[in-house]
Amino acid sequence: MRTRNAVARDYYGILGVGREASDDEIKRAYRKLARQFHPDVNPDPEAQEKFKDINAAYEVLSDDRKRQIVDLGGDPLAPGGGGAGGPGGPAGAGPFVGFQDIMDAFFGGAAGGARGPRPRTRPGADAILRLELDLHETAFGVEAPITVDTAVLCTTCSGAGTAAGTHLATCEACGGRGEVQSVQRTFLGQVVSARPCTVCQGYGTTIPHPCPTCAGDGRVRTRRSLTVKIPAGVEDGMRIRLAQQGEVGPGGGTAGDLYVEIHERPHDVYSRKGDDLHCRVTVPMTAAALGTRLTIKTLDSEETVDVKAGTQPGSTLRLRARGVPHLRGTGRGDLYVHLDVRTPTKLDVDQEKMLRDFAKTRGEEVAELSKQGGFFSRMRDAFNGHA
Known about the structure:
alpha+beta, Helix Hairpins, HSP40/DNAj peptide-binding domain, four-stranded mixed beta sheet, three-stranded mixed beta sheet, rod-shaped, disordered N terminus
């Protein structure tokens, strides 16, 4: 019996057909030769070997995947390839049961089969735009005009990418599959690998006559003007989503989303913590001691607040519902007024005498404090329970 060598067999030559033969032509050639060399008709040992070759050739050429390997110069029934009746097949006790097992081991069951061309039309990317707003705008909302530089649908070709009156053409290099395959011989046999077609970039089609406006991309870049509605109560860092206002995808694909990111400018009076506002107001020492009335200008009104007599440094006044409106729900945050009591740094003779006289009436003379051991001694006595 003849042994099969490592050279790929000419399966087309065995059946006597050309490489462009159709499935019907291959089937007719097989039936004709099978009747001629069948062991029941022709008992010659050479005829029996010929009949095995005819069956192997028909097995390969009637299978699109195996025929593709042959067209690439490989042999799916070669040693290690594991075809039916081959050394690596069930009768050969090779390391793999068959050709498909070897492909599955390397490529997870997807090897040998075409993945198909990738689509020219794909979804567009999202875009992010930074928008700076004042505190008043973030607090009460605003309709802000924005300018966006993005890709939009090409109006000349409506996203097709082809010039007027022309169409896409099937790639001749890959036959429209979007990938090309090659056969490599390894210690396990022949392995088929696929890679994207470099001619059509994996699309399976080419553009013989690209659109003169978009150069075949199906989209062009332009500057658009939009108006975004900012709701009341947004905070720094929040994003407003505008659906399908981002980049149009290649080939006129669905546009992505546009995200408007809010950046709140620092305010010269108020600082913000959530929906509450904070500010600092300096009052004279005498006003804090005697009490006074302050007029506070809030974000949207003026409020009069009373400073009680004897107010201490660091005291805080709370104005309810004078902060930022809540983003979700009703109501507003509060406004906190932090009081800084200002002590005079320079006194004239009369003012100093008045303060000393005032200190005497309260028993707070400097000499009296020194006589009792000073300020820190009095603090110590206070902690120790001495009056």
